[in-house]
């Protein structure tokens, strides 16, 4: 059965409210803590996770829940609707007081990312992008702009940039990279170095709603609420680049 669009709109609005509030909590923890680096990242993750888990358990008690910072249980596997959250995506960037970290609140229905929000608390005074508040992609002429990891750029992305004459743009969290494509600041985000469902469920829900191509790097669909939550690669890009990117990856 197809999800009810009205219900999904309500879910997206809830995801946006929770992601925005969680982002503010993360900022407050960082401002008050006498910590930095990894210790600050761990404290922020734990505090934001407590808020999100409590809120979703109270507001959507019949749904499943998977969080990076919460012990997983098999109960979610029997649920059609499962919330998948990353309290702080980009803990390294958060701990370094950079802006390229994010909060992910996503909803998968029958394995498909259908609703969600990604908060970028330190971008433009606090930005939240959702799957049900869609703006047209801005036009971009010229070579593609490819987002890569600050420390471990995907070899496939480097090869694509070389073959297409693209510009490489290092950035922090997966959510920040995906939302840079949604916001028209970049064209291609390809990651092959290993992720988990919470790293890209909410970003994929938002990106797909904005008309972007979202898949594994072999072109197969992204599926969520699996027993094994490892989801090693993702491609989010403007539709006009998808075929060429997938063709290049297939030859590597």
Your description of this structure?
- The chain has two domains: 5-130, Fructose-1,6-Bisphosphatase, subunit A, domain 1 (Fructose-1,6-Bisphosphatase, Chain A, domain 1, 2-Layer Sandwich); 145-251, D-Maltodextrin-Binding Protein, domain 2 (3-Layer(aba) Sandwich), CATH 3.40.190.
- The model has no long low-confidence stretch (mean pLDDT 94).
- The chain has a five-stranded mixed β-sheet, with helices on both faces.
- Helix 4 (155-164) links the parallel strand 6 (145-149) and strand 7 (167-171).
- It contains seven helices and ten strands.
- The longest helix has 28 residues, at 5-32.
- The chain is an alpha/beta fold.
- Helix 1 (5-32) packs antiparallel against helix 2 and helix 5 packs parallel to helix 6.
Features:
Inositol_monophosphatase-like, D-Maltodextrin-Binding Protein, domain 2, 252 residues, 22% strand, five-stranded mixed sheet, 2 domains, single chain, alpha/beta, magnesium, 3'(2'),5'-bisphosphate nucleotidase activity, metal ion binding, CysQ/Inositol_MonoPase
């Amino acid at each position: 059965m197809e999800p009810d669009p009205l219900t999904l709109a309500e879910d997206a609005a809830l995801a946006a409210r929770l992601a925005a509030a969680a982002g503010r909590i993360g900022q407050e923890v960082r401002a008050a803590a006498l910590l930095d680096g990894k210790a600050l990242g761990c404290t922020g993750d734990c505090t934001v996770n407590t808020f999100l888990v409590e809120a979703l358990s109270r507001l959507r008690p019949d749904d499943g829940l998977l969080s990076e910072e919460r012990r997983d249980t098999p109960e979610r596997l029997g649920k059609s609707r499962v919330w998948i959250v990353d309290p702080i995506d980009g803990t390294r960037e958060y701990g370094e007081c950079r802006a390229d970290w994010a909060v992910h609140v996503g909803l998968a229905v029958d394995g498909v990312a259908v609703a969600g929000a990604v908060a970028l608390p330190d971008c433009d005074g606090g930005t939240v992008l959702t799957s049900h508040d869609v703006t047209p992609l801005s036009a971009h002429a010229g070579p593609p702009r490819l987002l890569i990891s600050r420390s471990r750029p995907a070899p496939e992305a480097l090869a694509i940039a070389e073959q297409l004459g693209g510009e490489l743009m290092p950035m922090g969290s997966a959510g920040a990279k995906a939302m840079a494509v949604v916001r028209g600041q970049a064209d291609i985000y390809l990651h092959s170095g290993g992720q988990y469902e919470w790293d890209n469920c909410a970003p994929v829900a938002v990106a797909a709603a904005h008309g972007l191509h979202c898949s594994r790097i072999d072109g197969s669909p992204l599926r969520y609420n699996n027993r094994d939550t490892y989801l090693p690669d993702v491609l989010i890009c403007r539709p006009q680049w998808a075929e060429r990117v997938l063709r290049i990856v297939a030859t590597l």
